[in-house]
């Protein structure tokens, strides 16, 4: 910003910069997502940060309260979406040396003005102001709480548990002086098993101890002699203390075995389990609780799925644990008992344990842990005297079993959820998320060499639609099994899509070795697969990438995907190696897609027409409408260059409707000709297509029989039931139907019977091409097709007639209609007008 001399209205000698520098504020320029793009102070105070430290980082990294991150982000989102000034917004800033400073920000949003690209946040240090208010709150709160809790232990700590004040009763209750505990971290005085989460820097003491406002907990505090004193601890609910101080009152609990204490212990354990504590820690806590309450000298050991977890008892050694495992004491039976709390014991167990422990333990009791997945473990109780369990002890053991079972069940649930988040439910293979993690791990090191295979099953949708989804699922499971068997032990195969798999092959020196593994996958698919509804043979298109680390996992996946599509475009059932040209091809494809969208709006599409003639007199009886793209600066573009892109992107639907509209218009122009237009499988799935065609014919005044709709044989079998219904509706409308490219797809006699609504079979040009070759079998194929069509009541049109000899053979076989370059290439509508004006004869009439 430039200030013109004399324009500011300031006294002489006082500049705008001088005035701004006198203000005690920090200015931060922000992108709408919170990224700092500019940072500085008008008055020199930047909370200790320099611009070099923070520019490029998100502003939330300067805030101390990570738990308020969501609130901060929401506040910024509101400010970024609404022009004007927002605030004040109070936050706790952290300085580079770790000190906390309170700040107040105003955020200005002028993004709606030309040239403004950033939010402006102006912050002011309000630490001293808050400190004074906090002092008054503390004074009043302390006075009231100390008077109320004169007979209890009163502790005031900061947010992380450092003791700032202890009442004089600390000496009577814990045998420690006030001076001894002041400045000590409270968690150092509390039994570790009473923590809900492990203490750490910055973790609120209430979260560690579970002492939310107004809530009571029984905690064990170490007294001056090292013994544990049990206190019922409550945190103050007073709002006057603010966020910076925590006030706790504690009253000593009498009676080690009272029910209230047991309930408290049980609650603590359940909270630990619910918070996701490791199963070993939970079992140790259960074992320790039971051992303490059974009496001095007793021991409890928890077993889960093989590994041993025991309480911290010095009398349990490895030799005794080995004995328990070797004798089967620690292992539950194969079948659960009817009573999950059945106590198991035997004289043999007692003798073995007594001998192994040197007489320390003389009785053994075992209870099975029966969870949602059956028997999952066992608790073993070792008794130092020869006595049976009392009813109270039996109840205690039952509680311990319940708690241990809950811990084990939650562990299993966590394991299932973790596995489900990273694995495909149908095949059990790793999913895309797991694969990306492994790729990041595999390619992060310098010089590592590995391969990636992107595998897509060919025509899987055809199998899925023809035989049903159950058969498709079984096919995917069988393919997964075969792939795992074909690969090396260290290879990873993942399912990343419906019928798409990716294989990570580590430790391969070059692309040739990756191609060898691709050949293994191809061979694994060679044998037929028996499915409900029939036997199938499936093939795959495979893209191969070999990379040297470090490499970006997303780029590797994209490159292998491009190679796979290259394999599909080259005919399926093959392997293609990635090369840089495929990226260029993909970019060109994207460019075609964008240009094609513009072409539809700019009316750049045109129709050309190829005549269909009677062979015996060469009279034109119809035309096939062929789509062309008159692309500016390039010229006429044939369908093969853009129709695949249109099909993949869904643009084929508006393109197809445009063709039908124009075909109907030209049919009205040529009342003596049948006009044919092609339909794709995507168009046949359009439920409104029949109504659209009927509307076109009505608007242009065209009799339905003058319009012929052509469907390729391969498209007919993508969803046979739906297509049969669609063709039936077209038949009721009265339009003619043709099966195009007959003989090149998957159609059988059964399909011809099901698609009997069609009127015409068009013999594919690939068979017509061999009619004048004596060594070809095409003559027999075309002859059979003509006989079949005649017997089923179809008209026939031979496509791709190039030579007079082919025309003569077709005429001799009884084919009436044909099209091809022998008669005419595809021409403009004006050329068709000229042919009609000259009598409609196309080419030379053959001599008889």
Explained architecture:
The chain is α+β, with helices and mostly antiparallel strands. The protein is 40% helix and 23% strand. The protein contains 29 helices and 30 strands. Strands 22-23-25-26-27-28-29-30 form an eight-stranded mixed beta barrel, surrounded by four helices. A five-stranded antiparallel sheet has the order 2-1-5-4-3, with helices on both faces. A hairpin with a 3-residue loop joins strand 23 and strand 24. Helix 8 runs antiparallel to helix 9 and helix 15 packs across helix 16. The longest helix has 32 residues. The N terminus is likely disordered.
For the structure shown, list the relevant keywords.
five-stranded antiparallel beta sheet; alpha+beta; disordered N terminus; eight-stranded mixed β-barrel; 23% strand; 848 residues; elongated
Give a short synopsis of this structure.
With 848 residues, the chain is of the alpha+beta class. Helices cover 40% and strands 23% of the residues.
What's the helix and strand layout?
Elements: H1 16-21, E1 26-30, E2 36-41, H2 51-54, H3 69-81, E3 84-94, E4 100-109, E5 119-125, H4 127-148, E6 153-158, E7 163-166, H5 169-174, H6 178-181, H7 205-209, E8 216-222, E9 228-235, E10 245-252, H8 259-274, H9 279-294, E11 299-304, E12 308-310, H10 318-326, H11 347-356, E13 363-371, E14 374-383, H12 391-422, H13 432-442, E15 449-457, H14 460-467, H15 469-486, E16 492-495, E17 500-506, H16 511-524, E18 529-531, E19 534-536, E20 540-548, H17 553-569, E21 575-577, H18 580-602, E22 605-614, E23 620-631, E24 635-637, H19 643-649, H20 652-669, E25 674-679, H21 681-684, H22 689-700, E26 707-712, H23 713-716, H24 720-733, E27 736-742, H25 749-754, E28 760-763, H26 765-768, H27 778-792, E29 795-798, H28 804-813, E30 817-818, H29 829-837
Parallel strand pairs: 20-21, 23-25, 25-26, 26-27, 27-28, 28-29, 29-30
Antiparallel strand pairs: 1-2, 1-5, 3-4, 4-5, 6-7, 6-10, 8-9, 9-10, 11-12, 11-14, 13-14, 15-17, 15-20, 16-17, 18-19, 22-23, 22-30, 23-24
Helix pairs in contact: 8-9, 8-12, 9-12, 14-15, 15-16, 20-22
């Amino acid at each position: 910003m430039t200030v013109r001399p004399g324009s500011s209205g300031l006294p002489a000698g006082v500049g705008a910069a001088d005035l701004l520098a006198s203000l005690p504020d920090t200015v931060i320029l922000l992108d709408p997502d919170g990224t700092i793009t500019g940072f500085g102070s008008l008055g020199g105070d930047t909370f200790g940060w320099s611009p070099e430290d923070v520019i490029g980082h998100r502003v939330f990294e300067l805030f101390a309260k990570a738990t308020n991150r969501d609130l901060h982000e929401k506040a910024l989102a509101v400010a970024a979406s609404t022009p004007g000034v927002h605030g004040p917004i109070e936050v706790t800033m952290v300085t580079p040396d770790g000190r906390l400073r309170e700040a107040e920000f105003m955020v200005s949003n002028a993004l709606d003005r030309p040239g403004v690209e950033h939010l402006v946040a102006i912050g002011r240090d309000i630490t001293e102001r808050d400190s004074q208010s906090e002092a008054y709150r503390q004074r009043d709160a302390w006075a009231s709480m100390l008077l109320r809790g004169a007979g209890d232990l009163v502790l005031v700590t900061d947010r992380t548990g450092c003791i700032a004040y202890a009442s004089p009763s600390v000496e009577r209750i814990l045998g420690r002086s006030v001076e001894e505990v002041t400045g000590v971290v409270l968690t150092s005085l509390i039994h570790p098993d009473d923590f809900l989460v492990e203490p750490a820097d910055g973790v609120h003491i209430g979260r560690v101890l579970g002492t939310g406002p107004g809530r009571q907990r029984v905690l064990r505090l170490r007294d001056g002699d090292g013994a544990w004193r049990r206190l019922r601890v409550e945190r103050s609910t007073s709002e006057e203390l603010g966020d910076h101080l925590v006030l706790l009152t504690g009253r000593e609990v009498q009676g080690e075995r009272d029910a209230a204490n047991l309930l408290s212990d049980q609650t603590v354990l359940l909270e630990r389990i619910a918070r996701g504590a490791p199963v070993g820690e939970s079992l140790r806590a259960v074992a320790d609780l039971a051992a303490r309450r059974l009496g001095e000298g007793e021991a409890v050991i928890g077993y889960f799925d093989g590994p041993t977890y025991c309480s911290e008892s010095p009398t349990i050694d490895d030799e005794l644990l080995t004995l328990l495992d070797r004798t089967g004491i620690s292992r539950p039976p194969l079948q659960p008992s009817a009573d999950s709390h059945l106590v198991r014991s035997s004289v043999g167990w007692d003798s073995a344990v007594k001998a192994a422990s040197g007489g320390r333990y003389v009785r053994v009791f075992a209870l099975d842990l029966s969870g949602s997945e059956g028997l999952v473990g066992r608790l073993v109780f070792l008794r130092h005297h020869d006595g049976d369990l009392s009813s109270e002890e039996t109840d205690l053991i039952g509680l311990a079993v319940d708690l241990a079972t809950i811990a084990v069940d939650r562990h299993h649930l966590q394991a299932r959820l973790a596995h489900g988040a990273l694995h495909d439910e149908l095949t059990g293979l790793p999913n895309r998320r797991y694969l990306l993690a492994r790729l990041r791990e595999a390619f992060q090191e310098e010089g590592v060499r590995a391969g990636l295979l992107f595998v897509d099953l060919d025509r899987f949708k055809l199998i899925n639609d023809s035989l049903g989804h159950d058969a498709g699922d079984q096919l995917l499971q069988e393919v997964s099994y075969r792939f795992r068997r074909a690969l090396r032990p260290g290879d990873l195969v993942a399912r990343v899509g419906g019928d798409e798999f990716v294989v990570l092959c580590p430790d391969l020196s070059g692309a040739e070795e990756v191609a060898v593994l691709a050949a293994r996958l191809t061979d694994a698919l060679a044998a037929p697969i028996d499915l409900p509804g029939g036997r199938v043979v499936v093939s795959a298109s495979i893209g191969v990438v070999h990379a040297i680390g470090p490499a970006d996992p997303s780029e590797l996946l994209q490159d292998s995907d491009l190679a796979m599509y290259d394999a599909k475009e080259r005919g399926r059932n093959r392997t293609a190696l990635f090369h840089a040209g495929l990226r260029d091809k993909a970019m060109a494809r994207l460019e075609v897609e964008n240009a094609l969208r513009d072409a539809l709006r700019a009316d750049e599409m045109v129709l050309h027409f190829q005549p269909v003639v009677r062979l015996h007199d060469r009279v034109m009886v119809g035309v096939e409408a062929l789509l062309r793209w008159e692309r500016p600066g390039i010229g006429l573009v044939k369908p093969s260059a853009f129709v695949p892109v249109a099909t993949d992107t869904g643009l084929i639907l508006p393109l197809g409707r445009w063709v039908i509209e124009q075909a109907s218009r030209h049919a009205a122009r040529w009342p003596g000709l049948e006009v044919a237009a092609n339909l794709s499988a995507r168009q046949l799935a359009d439920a409104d297509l029949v109504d659209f065609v009927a509307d076109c014919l009505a608007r242009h005044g065209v009799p339905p029989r003058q319009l012929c709709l052509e469907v390729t044989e391969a498209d007919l079998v993508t969803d046979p039931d739906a297509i049969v219904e669609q063709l039936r509706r077209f038949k009721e409308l009265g339009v003619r139907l043709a099966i195009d490219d007959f003989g090149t797809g998957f159609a059988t006699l059964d399909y011809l019977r099901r698609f009997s609504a069609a009127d015409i079979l068009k013999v594919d040009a690939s068979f017509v091409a061999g009619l004048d070759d004596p060594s070809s079998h095409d003559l027999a194929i075309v002859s059979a097709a003509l006989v079949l069509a005649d017997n089923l009541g179809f008209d026939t049109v031979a496509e791709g007639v190039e030579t007079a000899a082919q025309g003569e053979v077709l005429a001799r076989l009884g084919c009436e209609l044909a099209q091809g370059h022998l008669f005419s290439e595809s021409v403009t509508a004006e050329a068709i007008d000229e042919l009609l004006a000259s009598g409609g004869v196309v080419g030379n009439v053959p001599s008889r």
